[in-house]
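Supplementary material to the annual report.
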Amino acid sequence: MRVEPKPAPSFAVTLLYPVAAIALTFAITALLVLAAGASPFSVFHLVWKGAAGSQFALLETLTRATPLIFTGLAVAVAFRAKLWNIGAEAQLYMGAVVTVVLGTGALPLPAFLLIPIIVIVAMAAGGVLLLGPAVLKTRFGVDEVVTTLLLNFIVLLFVSMLLEGPLKDPMGLGWPQSPKVIADAQLPRIVQGKRLHYGFVMALVSALVVWVIMKKTVLGYEMRAVGHNQQAASFAGVPVNSVLMKTALLSGGLAALAGFSEVSGLKGNLTLDLSPGYGYTGIVVAMLAMLNPIGVVASAIFVAGIFVGADAMSRSAGVPSYIADVMVATALLTMVVAILFTRYRLRWK
Amino acid sequence: MPQRPHPAASPPPSPQGGGEGAAPPVLRLSGVTKRFGPLLANDAISFELARGEVVALLGENGAGKTTLMNILFGHYVADEGAVEVFGKPLPPGDPRAALEAGIGMVHQHFTLAENMTVLENIALGTQGFLNWKLDRIGARERIEKLSWEFGLAVDPAARVASLSVGERQRVEILKALYRDARILILDEPTAVLTPAETDALFATLKLLVGQGLSIIFISHKLNEVMSVSDRVLVLRSGRLAGERVTAGTSRSELAALMVGQEVVSPPVPPPEPGQLQLVLNAVSTARRGAGVTLDRISLSLRGGEITGLAGVSGNGQAALAALISGVEAPASGEIIVRGNLAKNWSPRAALSAGIGRIPEDRHAVGTIGDMSVTENVIAERYRTSRFSRRGFLDWRAARKFAEEIIADYDVKCPSPEARIRLLSGGNMQKLILGRALDSAPSVILANQPTRGLDVGAVGYVHGKLLEARARGAAILLISEDLEEILALSDRIIVMSKGRLSAASPRGERTVAQLGALMAGHDMEAA
Amino acid sequence: MEALDILLTASFWVAAIRIASPLIFATMGELICERAGVLNLGIEGIMTAGAFAGWFTVYAGGDLWTGVLVAALAGAMFGLLHATLTVPLGLSQHVVGIGVTLLATSLTYFTYRLALPEVTSPPKIEPFQPLPIPGLSDIPVVGPALFNQTPLTYLAFLTVALTAWVLYRTPLGLAIRAAGENPSAVEAQGISVTAIRMGAVMAGSALMAVGGAFLTMSAFNSFFFEMINGRGWICIALVVFGSWRPGKALIGAILFAAFDAYQVRLQQLSGGVVPYQIFLMMPYALSILALILVARRATYPKALMVPYQKGER
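Predicted assembly:
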């Protein structure tokens, strides 16, 4: 059996492969639902109702999609340059820490100044956190997968230390949580009285900006060149190391925005369960979108819908909500196979 | 441990007659055809191989020699046709079956694991996986016996990583003999050898033939084919273009068969040497990995002149090419471009100094396979004001440039948006040529510019290099193909063990003298 | 000198060897995969699956060794998935590995919740008990540390010897090492690279799963969410640290575990002056440091992460 390149199919056909991957994912999940003794149709219907069946459900899905868009963009940007950033989770927490440090009254500035400052510092913190592994990769040849993964654990312990120390909320009844950020450091809600906040709009704008960077700018071109063939890019004069550093800053910064937006827009303070693995789920989001920044928005909403819908479903149907995680992981694997077959075919002899 | 019974070890049918060709065939190919997409790599090829015979398979690069041998060895499956070994059909696509039928292959790129010893490489796959212990003693005895018998000296306990190229080739041959190969296929075996090592190889081949082995010798070098073979099969664009008994043919007849017409060297007008364009002054490079480094190299290139760099592969050509193309910076010494000392040497510095670069490996270094033709042609110049402003790329200008290159350099491709991976080798090389030459560089580094191209594309590349020479560019042509060097170069320099010989003008040194230099003799005297 | 006295106590070394045991299994598993040329980032999830599968088998009434076997089988199945996608299809080993980790982890949690919907505190099983080796276990310090452990710890050490033997002394080991160095050498000798690599990934994954099972069946006696807690990633660092050699990797795992056991004891000594999180960070930070130290002279298997297609050279 051989895997051979084939000419690019038409755009419509290109779309067929991901659709097939998602269909396969549903089929596999249906088997698990059957194993759980429930009917796949009613379960998927409940998931759909829970994710998009009402205004409340839909807004909840978009709220959940917001951090996933950021982490999905972070991963998409990094993977495009073949910088394997598996540390979006840690970068997210760095962004959240900065938001809390600057947003709880340390900087008494009006919102129109305070929020941009927090955003910039948060992005810098997330970027610098990824810069470390990027430098270790380029200078010492240390695989960044392992270092970014290990940093996730280190940063989470660091956050835990802060929450039991300097950032501990004195009014928190001993819980490891930070004080709330001040009103001027909060992102307003889009609809009064609902949870969806302007972080979602920021996420959409970020996706657009990243799309422009990837398609239209010199940096985007350099990142793609480095990602596709580092040796050839270097030969042609692309400054590979500096491109990887810029990629790290951008990717880490985007992931940090997820932390900023969760604290500033939704939760108001920092806790150890701020992110239920958004950093890792961002990898799935990015792969489902085939690393396309606009696609990230769609896939983040899709993935968020599955999570939100599965929560609602599990309350009424009794199938564990972890079915959502299984679906998302399965979708990742079916999708990479689908992407392969858009560009390659199998020959059996 | 007992040796596996071997079908080929049983005595082959006894010869019926005395003369060559009268013996029954040990190998018979009938109508073997192989397509890669639209490309017909092998077109209904049939031939037979007799016991104790050396058949040379002659052809240009890309004529289909290697494909044919890969079918024989089971790496590829033929679309049509059949292979018989000792009268039995050979199951297709199964290297194991080929090995068991007595076919041994010495690949052009060695198939050795460098982290293991010679013994381990040879024993690999010869003992059953259910054995709890590798029989080292038995393997060692057998290897020593074979090396002594056939003059293949090599230490079984040595790690392959520490071996020279010639030694590695001996290990490859031992691998085949260890498995009782009756048919030995050698794919371009001399490409990596010095003339002296080549002679030793030929002596070994004589011994093997004396033991009744049959040999298929793949080459594109006429003189070797003439000296080593009994019979010559000529392949041209996938077809069997002719078959001759070596004793009854001549170099020129074979050359004509190979190319399809009388070989015409491109007309090379006398040079008009111009200004010094690039000077390397006692440059050394730092050791990186196991490759040969440069040792106080000095080299001057003048405009309007092609300097040919001859040498056996792996003698520092890669390091020199990396240096001139900017991939590697000098550890000591000076690079002087048109009188100016170069600083902060890098690919970008080389480009802005006006050096056009044609890299050795089109796929790994020359192009980014999954990016489009447009994205590839601007790769060396995307930062210039022609293609970008304030960090934004001008895709319209880029596409227009790609269309110009496609038209000017006669590139066949579906569209500028097509992934470059889908282009043929020749078209890929034309794009690289266009990218490098379009800005009329004053220095051109052409590293193996015609390797693996068909005859038409080779002529095209040579023509473009001569055009650049005519407009006054200084050209360094690095090639392992001495005939290419001799045809194009105004002056020839030989590289050996990281050092350069003095330059000799066209026609001054004989092939034998160049060969001696390539082997590293008289480097100081020359 | 209290801090140094710890190093001389038997209980410290007993703990160190116990902590090392799951790492040894999983490191050998990863080492086998990488020696054949496949980076297996599914390790974290496969350990999770193994931890659950082994424990659940015993909880459901199976005996302990059946549990180990079931864990190994579960690991091999995830290995098969990983190998199918990365070996014949040649997909990115990074992405597939992360995918397998996510899938194995979520499937485990799903199954756990499905099987035990109502429990709040995880049920306990009767785990492996220490099996003192007569005579040897009476040697001071070394005795209890090495010869009064559970059978699974002995199995871990046996695994190292077995891995080393197979890789360096058997015909199969030659093929595995060659597949990770130059797969065309394997194919040219009539052996299927695909079969060797897939087999290595499945066997390696089985060992990873047994490493996970050690936690639920020997070190502790029940299954918790997130109990692997980055151990898989640490094993990947240990393989690099051990230069892809079983013996060196074993030393790395023991050093690492000793450090881990030591930081727990230092934590108690420090009396809360230094935040405990600093101590908990140390193993991860140490892994990164170890990677930096060895990275420059590390000799990777040359074909690691390079997919291979038949007839390619």
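The longest helix of chain A spans residues 111-140.
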